[in-house]
Please model this.
Amino acid sequence: MSKTCVFCEKFNKRPEGDHLVFEPLNPVVEGHLLVIHREHTDDFTENPIISGQLTERASLVAKIKGGDYNLITSKGKNATQTVPHLHIHLIPRKENDGLLLPWSGQAYKDQLVREIEEMEDSGLRNENGEWVESDNISKSKVISMIRESKGGKDGKKNNR
Model:
């Protein structure tokens, strides 16, 4: 244990057990939990055995609680790690909970809707709220142009 680590300090108040499960200071949704190991390990690459034990504990907690979860850990400042002590976020998920992950495609869909709404607000609708198709601009052409600017027919970048 490290004397200066905020997570290690939690174990000073609880002398038994190798793991703690608790709510973070700023949970992103109700039920968001952190799972930490007693042994100070900076991140998941420092000690694969501790990392494995922590992942096992987190998976057991999620199984007992039930439901759908994201299990997230980070390594380093650029990966949004703010406490240099290995920890796992268990984030319960529900349909339409508003949490967006970049690989889900939802963020792109939301951005596309915003761009279309901005175009509509900027004069592509008449006073009756109808789409105005003039000067060779149609709604389908605008949508197609936005999708192509984002990386292809379906609007998704090719990640190969």
